[in-house]
Amino acid sequence: MKGLESYVLYEGDSITAGVTHQIEIGRDKSWVKYEAVTRVRPDETTDHARSRVVGHVNESAGVAVAATVESVRSNYAVR
Fold first, then answer.
1. I want to staple 18 with a disulfide (CB 3.0 to 4.6 A). Which of 26, 31, 35, 75 is the partner?
2. Alpha-carbon span 37 to 56, nearest angstrom
């Protein structure tokens, strides 16, 4: 990306990253949001801090989506 050097983060700066996924099971729609807040660690580069929090959010959102799908499907079985 052009110009990222202008947006350097410094030790202690806060980073918030999040995603929202819409999932549809049958006629039900659910939205799963996962968000994480972290800080730039000592001697950590901007790229590493961003990569760390985005990787965490993406992986954890996948787990949250899978759990939501399982829960919604379980509710269908009870009906």
1. 35
2. 10
pLDDT, block means (10 residues), the chain with 79 residues: 72 97 87 96 94 97 93 75
- Here the tokens at position 54 are 């985005």
CA distance 12 to 14: 6
From residue 77, alpha-carbon distances to 37, 71, 72 in Å are 36, 10, 9
The residue assigned the tokens 């807040």 is 37
Contact 65, 21 (CB under 8 A): yes
- For residue 42, the one-letter residue type is P
Residues in the chain: 79
Residue 19 backbone zone (phi > 0: left; psi -120 to 50: alpha; other: beta)? beta
